[in-house]
Specification:
single chain, 427 residues, mainly alpha, Methane Monooxygenase Hydroxylase, Chain G, domain 1, 3 domains, four-stranded antiparallel sheet
Length: 427
C-alpha cells in the first residue's frame, strides 16, 4: 500500500475543500439535532439558530461575489478561490455556533435556574479576577528601537538620506572577492560618461558589512536611453564576476529581479509602443515574458563581451579596491580611459543639448572691468575722458556676449542709473 499517495492527493485538493466539508458536517449535525434531539430549546432560540445559519450562507455568497468584482485583470481565478474559502469558513463557523447553542440552551438554562446563586457568584468572581489581572499586568507594548543608535553622535534623530545620497547601485555578499568583481564591472560601465564628477561620484566598499555601493546622480534621469544604460549596469556586475571568477553567485539575484521591472518600463517607452506592461490574458503575458527574456539575453551577452575585452582593467580595479575602500572618479580615471567598449554598448550621458550644455559646458570667459593704467599721465578732464572711454569700450565688449537689453527690464534700469551716477560724481 502506498499511503503517501493519500498525502499527495490531499495537497492537490483545492483550498476550499476543507471548509466545504466542515460546513456540510455541521449542517448535517444541526439537522439531526432538530429532528432527533429530545431536549429542544424554546421556539425563539430555534428560530434564531436557523436564521443565523441561513444568513451565513447568504453572507458567504456575498463575499464570493465581492472578491470576484474587486479582482484585477488576470486574477479572477485566484479571486474565486479566495472568496470561496472566506465565505465557507464564515458559514461553517456560524453553523457550529448555532448547533452548540441549539443543543446546549435547554441544559444550561435549567442549570442556571436551579443554581442561580452559584452562577451569579461564579460570574462575579471571574469579573473581579479579570479586573485585577488587567490592573496588575505590566504594559507589554515595546518601545520603538532606534536602528541608527550607533550613529546618534554624528547623525540627528530621524535623519533620512536624500535622493542624491542614496546609492544608485548596491550589492551585498559575504565573499569579498566576488563583491569587488561586481563593483569593478559597474565601474567600467561608466566609461565615456559625462556624468562623472569628483564631488558626486564614488565607489564605496563596506568591508565590515560586505556591501558595495555606487553613488552618483545618474538615478535622477529616466529617459529611454538612460534606462537602456541602467539595464546594462544591472548586468555588468554578474558579467564581471563570471569573467574574473568563472561562475555566478547569489549577488546577482537582486539585479536580475530589478532588471525585469526596469526592462518592462524600458520596453513600454519604445517608439513602437507595442509592448503591453499589464497583460490581460495568458497569451499577452507569454509575449511580455519572452520579450523581457530576449532583452536580458542580449544585454548580458553585450556586457559579458565588454568584461572579457577589459579583463586586465577589471583585475587592476579589484587590486585597487583591496587597498582603498572609497574610490572617486579621479582615482579610477586612468583605468576608465583604458576601457574598450564594443559597438552598441550604451553610454551614460546627460541631455547635453539642453541642461548640461547651458549649465556646465557653455561658458563665456570675458574680460573683467579694470582701472589699471586709466589715470597714468593724465589730470583733470583727461581723467574723466579716459575713464569714460574705458567704460564705454568695456560695455561694448560685453554686449557681444549677451543678448540685447530690454529697456523695460528693472535690472537694466538699475544698471543705467548706476552709469549716470558715475558721470555725475566725476563731473
Amino acid at each position: 500500500m502506498r499511503l503517501h499517495n493519500l498525502k499527495d492527493a490531499g495537497s492537490l485538493m483545492p483550498q476550499w475543500a476543507t471548509a466545504c466539508l466542515l460546513n456540510v458536517a455541521f449542517l448535517a449535525l444541526y439537522t439531526v439535532a432538530v429532528y432527533r434531539f429530545d431536549a429542544k430549546p424554546s421556539s425563539y432560540v430555534a428560530s434564531s439558530c436557523t436564521a443565523a445559519i441561513l444568513l451565513s450562507l447568504v453572507l458567504a455568497l456575498c463575499l464570493l461575489v465581492r472578491d470576484i468584482v474587486n479582482a484585477k485583470t488576470g486574477e479572477v481565478a485566484h479571486a474565486v478561490s479566495k472568496g470561496a474559502v472566506t465565505g465557507l469558513n464564515l458559514s461553517w463557523a456560524i453553523t457550529c455556533v448555532a448547533f452548540l447553542c441549539y443543543i446546549g440552551w435547554a441544559p444550561v438554562s435549567e442549570y442556571v435556574a436551579s443554581n442561580a446563586g452559584v452562577v451569579v457568584s461564579g460570574i462575579g468572581a471571574f469579573a473581579m479576577v479579570g479586573v485585577g489581572y488587567f490592573i496588575a499586568t505590566p504594559n507589554t507594548k515595546g518601545t520603538p528601537t532606534d536602528t541608527q543608535s550607533a550613529q546618534s553622535m554624528s547623525i540627528a534623530p530621524g535623519f533620512k538620506p536624500t535622493l542624491v545620497q542614496q546609492p544608485s547601485f548596491q550589492v551585498t555578499m559575504a565573499d569579498l572577492t566576488r563583491l569587488m568583481a561586481h563593483q569593478a564591472g559597474r565601474a567600467i560601465g561608466y566609461s565615456g560618461s559625462n556624468v562623472l564628477f569628483d564631488d558626486s561620484f564614488s565607489l564605496d566598499l563596506d568591508v565590515n558589512d560586505r556591501v558595495a555601493r555606487v553613488y552618483s546622480n545618474t538615478n535622477l534621469i529616466h529617459s529611454e536611453e538612460f534606462m537602456n544604460w541602467r539595464l546594462h549596469m544591472l548586468m555588468m556586475g554578474s558579467a564581471a564576476e563570471s569573467v574574473l571568477v568563472g561562475s555566478s553567485s547569489q549577488a546577482a539575484l537582486d539585479d536580475l529581479t530589478s532588471f525585469d521591472d526596469l526592462a518592462s518600463r524600458y520596453l513600454t517607452l519604445r517608439m513602437d509602443r507595442t509592448f503591453n506592461a499589464t497583460p490581460i490574458n495568458m497569451h499577452e503575458a507569454q509575449i511580455k515574458a519572452s520579450r523581457i527574456a530576449m532583452l536580458r539575453k542580449s544585454v548580458y551577452d553585450r556586457c559579458h563581451a565588454t568584461c572579457a575585452d577589459n579583463r586586465q582593467t577589471l583585475a587592476d580595479l579589484v587590486k585597487l579596491m583591496r587597498t582603498r575602500n572609497v574610490l572617486t572618479y579621479g582615482d579610477i580615471r586612468a583605468h576608465l580611459e583604458r576601457v574598450k567598449t564594443p559597438e552598441g554598448f550604451p553610454v551614460a550621458r546627460f541631455d547635453d543639448s539642453e541642461i548640461l550644455k547651458k549649465a556646465l559646458l557653455a561658458f563665456d570667459d570675458h574680460q573683467e572691468v579694470t582701472m589699471e593704467g586709466a589715470f597714468q599721465n593724465t589730470t583733470g578732464s583727461d581723467q574723466v575722458e579716459t575713464f569714460d572711454d574705458a567704460l564705454t569700450e568695456q560695455m561694448d565688449a560685453e554686449q557681444e556676449f549677451t543678448r540685447p537689453c530690454d529697456r523695460t527690464d528693472p535690472a537694466n534700469e538699475v544698471q543705467s542709473g548706476s552709469y549716470t551716477n558715475v558721470h555725475k560724481l566725476l563731473a
